[in-house]
Design brief:
metal-binding; alpha+beta; iron; Jelly Rolls; four-stranded antiparallel sheet; ferrous iron binding
Amino acid sequence: SPPPHLKAGSGWSAERIARQYIVPCMKYYGICVKDSFLGPQLGDGVLREVEALNKTGKFRGGQLVSQKSIPSRNIRGDQIAWVEGREPGCESIGALMAHIDEAVMYSAANGQLGDCVINGRTKAMVACYPGNGAGYVRHVDNPNSDGRFITCIYYLNKNWDVKTQGGMLQIYPEGKNVVASIEPLFDRLLIFWSDRRNPHGSEAGLRTRYAITVWYFDAKERAEAKEKYKLGKLSEGPLDRP
């Protein structure tokens, strides 16, 4: 559990967030948005740490898992850093991950998110989209059953106006004639299924914006993916990434 100065705002409850937001929204829509996730104090701490990572040159160009012949920047314009949360200067990011862990584990308890068994997650992918029209074309996070079950994105952008600055994330839920448009607003947590149910992409943005993404693994699919990887049937994928 994070120390007191790294805890979310008063009244924060993983159980309440799971019960009121994550479980019903994932069941009916496959997408969940929770605003004011951490509260301004801890949210500000996360933002300061991410800005420091950027200023000290810790970000690198985001790589593609496949399509290696296409320059990555044509598809994704983000700069990324993988963070465990225990590094010096990343304490608030670590606290954010602990809060997401708690909310996701409460949500998955007693089969509330289907028959998955969540047995781990990736490190945090901290992404910076430079304000030069950088975006990420439409894609599926886990198109080939690599074990990733849930995608969680935490946004850090204050006073963001999509009308003038762009940067909208658009999700195209499979089989539904709707598009979910998500603004990348400060202290907003977005959760959605990682597989083919949720193709998504982000529009070009005209101001630097930040997001932190973690993926949670379903134990069974992850074990099968590792087996395929060993046998060479899964030649590329996030199994060789943090």
